[in-house]
Amino acid sequence: MTNKIAPGFKQIAVEDFRLTEEPFYLPLRDEVELFETAYADKVPVLLKGPTGAGKTRFVEYMSWRLHNRGGHGGHEEGVPLITVACHEDLTASDLVGRYLLEGDETRWIDGPVTRAVKNGAICYLDEVVEARKDTTVLIHPLTDYRRLLPVEKRGELLEAADGFLLVMSYNPGYQSAIKDLKHSTRQRFIAIEFDYPPRDQEAIIVQRESHVDAAIAMELAKLAEKVRNLKEHGLGEGVSTRLLVYAGKLIHGGISPRRACQVSIVWALTDDREVQRSIEEVVASIFDD
Amino acid sequence: MSIADDLTTRYAADLRGFGAALPDDFATGVRAMATLLPETAVEAWAKAGVELANSSLRAWEAAAEYFRASPALVDRLGVEGIARWVVLATDLSSRSSLIAAQFLKSTPDALAVLQPDDLDEWAQQGDRLCRGNWKSIALSQLYFQVSPALFQSLPLASVSRLVDIVDQLTERSYEVATTALEGAVQIFAGLPAVDREPFLRFARAVTRASWADTRLYFERGPRLLDRIESSQRTAFLDLAGRVTTEVGRQGFPLFSDAAEALGGLPLEQHSAYIAFAARIAAGSPTAAMEYLKSAAFVATRLNPDQRSLWEREGLEIVTVERNPEGAEAYFRLESTRAEERMRALSTRVELASINSMLRMYAKALSGEPVSVQSAEELVDRGIGWVTESTPTTEGSTIYLPPYVATFEEQEANFQVYKVFTTHQTGRMEFGSFDYAWDVPGTYVAATGPRREVAATMRREERGIAAAKAEAVTAVQRLFNCFDDRALIAGLFTVVEDTRIDALVAREYGGIRRWLRQLQEHEIVRRPKVEEMALRQAFVENLLRASLGMPEAIRWPVMLREYMTEGIAALRMVEQRGATVQDSAEVAGALYDIAASIPNVRAPMPDGKFDFEGATQEMMDVLPSMPGGGDGPDMPSNSQEAAFENPPQPDFRGDFKPELVQLMAKLKLQQEGGVDPGGALTKEQLMELLQNSTELSIAELADGDIDQSLGMFLDNLQKDAGMPASDKKGEKKDGDSDATDGGDGEGPDEGEMPVEITWFYYDEWDFRAGDYRPRWTRVGERFSAEGDREFYEETLRRHHGLVMETRRQFEMMRPESFKKIKRLEDGDELDTDLAIEFHVDKKAGAGPTQRIYNRRNKIERDVAVAFLLDMSASTDEEIEKQKVKHSKDDDDDDFDGDPRRYFQWLAARRAQAMIEPPKRIIDLEKESTVLIVEALEAIGDAYGIFGFSGYGRDNVEFHVIKNLDEQMSDRVQRRISKIEPIRSTRMGPAIRHTIHKLEEYDAKVKILILVSDGRPQDHGYGRDRTEKEYAVHDTKQALVEAKRLGITPFLITVDKEGHDYLKQMCDDIGYEVVDDIESLPRRLPTLYRHLAAD
Ligand SMILES: Nc1ncnc2c1ncn2[C@@H]1O[C@H](COP(=O)(O)OP(=O)(O)O)[C@@H](O)[C@H]1O
Ligand SMILES: [Mg+2]
What we know:
- The complex is a heterodimer of chains A (289) and B (1093).
- Helices cover 42% and strands 15% of the residues of chain A.
- Chain A is of the alpha/beta class and 289 residues long.
- A five-stranded parallel sheet of chain A has the order 2-5-8-1-9, sandwiched between helices. Chain A has a two-stranded antiparallel ribbon with strand order 3-4.
- In chain A, a hairpin with a 2-residue loop joins strand 3 (97-102) and strand 4 (105-110).
- The termini of chain B are far apart.
- In chain B, 42% of the residues are buried.
- The radius of gyration of chain B is 44 Å and the shape is flat.
- Chain B has seven domains: 1-111, no CATH class; 125-190, no CATH class; 194-346, no CATH class; 350-429 and 659-721, no CATH class; 448-619, no CATH class; 746-814 and 860-876 and 919-1093, 3-Layer(aba) Sandwich (Rossmann fold); 815-858, no CATH class.
- In chain B, the strands form five sheets. Chain B has an eight-stranded mixed sheet with strand order 8-9-15-14-13-16-17-18, with helices on both faces. In chain B, strands 2-4-3 form a three-stranded mixed sheet.
- In chain B, helix 44 links the parallel strand 17 and strand 18 (1069-1072).
- In chain B, helix 1 (3-16) packs parallel to helix 3.
- With 1093 residues, chain B is α/β, with parallel strands linked by helices.
- The chains are: A alpha/beta (289), B alpha/beta (1093).
- Chains A and B meet through helix 10 and helix 13 of A and helix 19 and helix 25 of B.
């Protein structure tokens, strides 16, 4: 049986992937400057903040920006971005690489971190606290001045290529104490804080990302601000910019604003009927239909 | 010699022995009879009389009555009748001469109604009441005394039924029987003829069901009936009778309540209500009465159409579902179903049903931790708000009317609540209370300081003393600049509300249309402006303009320019970006205009000042501030009226910025915040209160103004969380603790009132098969603290046990890693599997690649809540284990030196002597200590709670240790203090514990209920002895726990079979622990079992 592949489908090795277009990122404070400086000085970066606040988008933007500046290795080489979504079962081999059996042979496959190290890429460990602590320890030698990655199974030490930078994201909001970042890990990064943008800026983002008109974008941003006032009611961190963008996209596609907010915001946030009801009422107060 | 003389002489000797009058009575009687009857008959008559006189000891008294009454009766009775009559009397006399005498005496009156043939029956009825003892004799006599009067209103057959009733009563109480009989005459005379029979029929039913209620019925019945439509009384009484026959002792209370309720309904509707009740009664008599009882209330909520839907659903519970208990609860309005149905049908919206939703809504909008409450509660606080039906806020809480029924549709009424809430949150969100002194607005410069100087000069000129104290708040200072505080306060309110409305309409597009609807609703309800004095009319017209309806303005043509200027000024605050500072300035400018208009109500004869509609110019005017000029040139021929503000529109509610700023200030001070203004003096506060137009002191007290202000101030300070002023005085010298305030743990904690937080829970009514909504109220508080002695003593005494339990539990500590085998990838290679793999491969047998292992860390994530029964029944002793206890059972403290054994034994016995017998509660407490020690060893989260209480709205929930609380000295002291208190309403306590566990984040949750297995509380079941209701509710609560993924477990500390829970809780874990010694052996196994994933 052969796997069918859609025409035009592209399969690219992670390290070869490059963004072809400038991602839209609206800087909120001095994060761009901080990152650039850290990158130049090879200082690992921790992005801290709630989900959907733009961390991933920021890293993408930075990789594009650094790449197109041609700062490192010129235009062609650029700074690729290798992203790893961390989870509980992530093992060291998942990051570094492993032997696979191929018939009678074994074959070594580089893990994403190894690839980033070899290619001088930005290695982005998303939601790093989700990974087990004993896995995270593995990256420690990469963060100090030696920038080394031990590959135990092969008995090798890899020295990170120029341009390599370790970036992690971390959401302090919803993790329980058990799942906190180890101090020894945390101490190896500078931290850039992300939070949901103020109303006006958030409206600009929503407008750009979802193509709704400015007035609707503004109302959505207002809604977000109001809903975030309800943080303690089991809503975690409140509605994210990402959800607002979803709502905007639905509205732009012709769904009525109330309905769009219901499916993309109200229901995404909570299962508590009463909280849902009150958020729906806030929506109904802001949007006429 | 006449026969009369002859007889007189013949019986003279026989009659002489009795009272002096008897011979005379005889002589008179015989003479009269001789004229009426033939001789032989007279002779027989006389003979019968004399025999009667001799028939018993005092029978001559009866004979006297006989002699006296006979002549008048000859006509009625005839000879034979008289003869029969005296036989009856003689028979009665054998019971008691008194009875016979009364019988004879009353006969003429009785015969006014009765037929001669009835005499037998009549006599027999009286005879029935006599049982030989003196009380019954008196009763029987009373019967003959009152019955002639009774016959006026009741036929003999009915009286006979009354006698039945009285007779039954005598079995219980002669007093009650006598009262009933005495009262009957009046009662039946007072009742309309048609009601008498039915009244009596019901009386019989009542007496059979509950004799004591007969008296109540006789006392209150007529008055209750009086309020029921006359043609319906029979039907109602018959219904009540049927119900009573079925339900017994509850019958009369049901009747009484239902009659009362019916009395409150319009007379013309009684027949429909009673007819419907009769339909219900066929399936459930009680439900029928409950239906009538709640009818008046239902009528306030539902219109007739909705009501018939409501009724039909209830009837179906009886006829279709055949669930009489369910119907009872439904009509009693005590089932969730009833409540939901009511809510669905009613167009009226209750605050209670949307309260928490609105709270979150308000919180979202304002970004403040606001709460939402009924305005009734604000009024109760006595801090200056007096209307229960208007929305308002004091800055931190939003007060709303308890219900809204403004419109015909539920949705519209709900939207009214939203508009109310949005306007009030708007005051917070848009800063209505943030007015600051001498800060310019977005559009208008600050004029405060200039006005303040002018005001001082004005007052000096007029010789009015300057304000004694400095203003406390910025709003007060602002208002101080104006001579007429009512006017400036009123204008500020209108202007600020205009600004808020404009902002709400702009910011909340979805509210706009409902706001508009309320404005329209309001405008047609405004008072007539034409009847107002001019200045008031000016303010009223501004208000109309501010409601977005300048076309509703009515104003004299001559004065148009003032109105136009006023509206233009008002429009200033409708502009984007206007702040409360702008509002204050605009209010000031409007004040200047208003003050220049005389407050006269005098249409001029020339028609120049007639009121007319708004001009186009007024309606289209652009925002601008007035230029300032002179007032109108008006002949001041008429008296100026005192200025009064027109009423506020409902949806805007009360606005009291002065008070709100004051409260905020008091709070700030209380919290130890630094206030640039320095501490407030009492003088300052009193001045504010005295001058403020926001309080109506008149409503507070008629007495001394100073006193009521003082009280007021106390309330305000209390509200702001300050100690009341009298206590503050005592603390003055110790300045240090007055300043840091807060909730520091002073040594005088004992005096602090316990802080109680209330929670509401539904209760399960197994008969109705439904929950009673918000039926119980649980008050959570920290348990009182005792000394630590008990705790330490228990540890000491059960040292050995404690150690053993700990050991057991420590062994349960989580194995920190768990190995997962046979993975395609992992941390380590499994050698065995790897070898297998190679073998398989060589053998070509399709080897498995799953040869890796991984260790996963297992985190223990258990939370357990212990719920201890602290009810009075735990005060009981536990059956003593006499012999068992004596020997080597508990020898932890024996050091094993044989020489000291006897000494030890003696001491031990002596101790057993003085030691009070152990109660259930002691066992609970000791077990708790043990459990605490054990759980500390294992490290699981645990909470300890106790419960007791009295009645459904006072279930006490004592926190000994919260789930997230650290074990501490205080916890130990709380355990020591556990004492049996009141009743046992287990259901709500379990539900609250569930709530606590729900709030705690853990994978495994356990609820362990430690009790004596006897749920019992006032009203927890039909009466005190009923257990079923309580047991069912408790079981239901435990089932709820299970549903939420909590494992419930019962530990019962009693083996005496008083346990009502056991039978119910077959599918719930259960264990009897009758002595503490068995706990350490049982606990770990038990716990391990429960806490297993
Ligand atoms: N500052 C920003 N500039 C542009 N887009 C943003 C910004 N912040 C958030 N977004 C939008 O929100 C979405 C979610 O952001 P993302 O980076 O995925 O969040 P995170 O990684 O923090 O969970 C993005 O896809 C983007 O549309
Ligand atoms: Mg992300």
